[in-house]
Write a structure and sequence with these properties.
Layout lengths: L2 H35 L5 H5 L2 E2 L4 E2 L2 H32 L4 H13 L4 H15 L6 H26 L2 H9 L4 H29 L3 H6 L19 H10 L6 H30 L5
Antiparallel strand pairs: 1-2
Length: 282
């Protein structure tokens, strides 16, 4: 066996060990949550509002509130993020200004979520007077999600071979027709990945909704986008730290439902990605 083969084996072994070091703690965490929370998950827990100071009943208002926030975040962030990425990749010239924009988008992905929460509170709750509401919370989470969606969409568009564009334009198609029919269909898997990642992060965030939408205890469903709602991540924080003598199984059950919701989103994304990848021509 030559030296190159030995180095390759050593490298693969090290990478495998590193992967195990990352995956095992995650699997143990999920196992621990399932073990301690599965017994408390029931039909009543999923469909009833909380009672008796949140020590009894269920988490239905928090589930509905989380779903509404995810939908609102998607409605605000997805069109703007995809259109922004299309402009940066397909229309914008490569100059200092566009390079600064691209660098800023990447840097915005690393800003702590609490900063987005303070920004959303100042802009949407105080200045625009939306109040602590679904609208303010969704807009705040949408701003937080935009950098990930723009970056993922940009990389997905750039992965489509340039020859697709050349052939379409040479046949007389307009720039937009080329993007619509020859680029976007093949970039959808990458766009879906970025979208689900950003929405999954938004679904589990506490800090941004703490200032803009989350209610401590609100055992009813909202009637408009200007109402407050309970949300699973904030509800989990409240019952784990703010409510005395709270049964731990309820905290773990709430965490399990949140994990299940995120897992369901990722499962849908995987199915859609597999469907669109079958249509790739390269």
């Amino acid at each position: 066996m030559n030296v190159a083969k030995i180095r390759e084996k050593v490298a693969f072994t090290i990478l495998g060990l590193i992967t195990l070091l990352v995956v095992i703690p995650i699997l143990l965490t999920i196992f621990y949550v399932v073990k301690n929370g599965a017994g408390a998950v029931s039909w009543e827990f999923l469909t009833q509002p909380p009672r008796a100071g949140m020590k009894q009943g269920g988490i239905f208002p928090a589930i509905v509130g989380t779903i509404l926030l995810i939908i609102g975040t998607m409605l605000f962030s997805l069109p703007l993020g995809i259109l922004s990425a299309i402009y940066l990749v397909e229309y914008a010239k490569d100059n200092l200004f566009t390079r600064l924009i691209k660098l800023s988008v990447v840097n915005l992905s690393g800003i702590p979520s609490i900063v987005y929460g303070l920004f959303g509170f100042t802009l949407f709750v105080v200045i625009l007077r939306f109040g602590t509401s679904i609208l303010a919370g969704s807009l705040t989470l949408a701003i937080m999600s935009l950098p990930v969606i723009i970056t993922a969409t940009k990389e997905a568009l750039e992965s489509v071979p340039f020859s697709f564009r050349e052939i379409s334009l040479s046949l007389g198609a307009s720039r937009w027709q080329t993007i619509r029919y020859c680029v976007l269909p093949y970039a959808i898997p990458g766009i879906l990945t970025g979208t689900v990642l950003s929405l999954s992060r938004a679904a589990g965030e506490t800090a941004p909704i703490l200032f803009t939408v989350a209610a401590f205890y609100l055992p009813r469903l909202p009637h408009s986008i200007f109402d407050q709602v309970m949300a699973l991540p904030y509800h989990l924080y409240v019952i784990s730290t703010q409510v005395p003598n709270m049964p731990m199984k309820l905290s773990f059950a709430t965490g399990l439902v949140l994990i299940g919701l995120v897992f369901l989103m990722n499962l849908v994304s995987i199915i859609l990605r597999a469907h669109y990848r079958k249509k790739k021509l390269w």
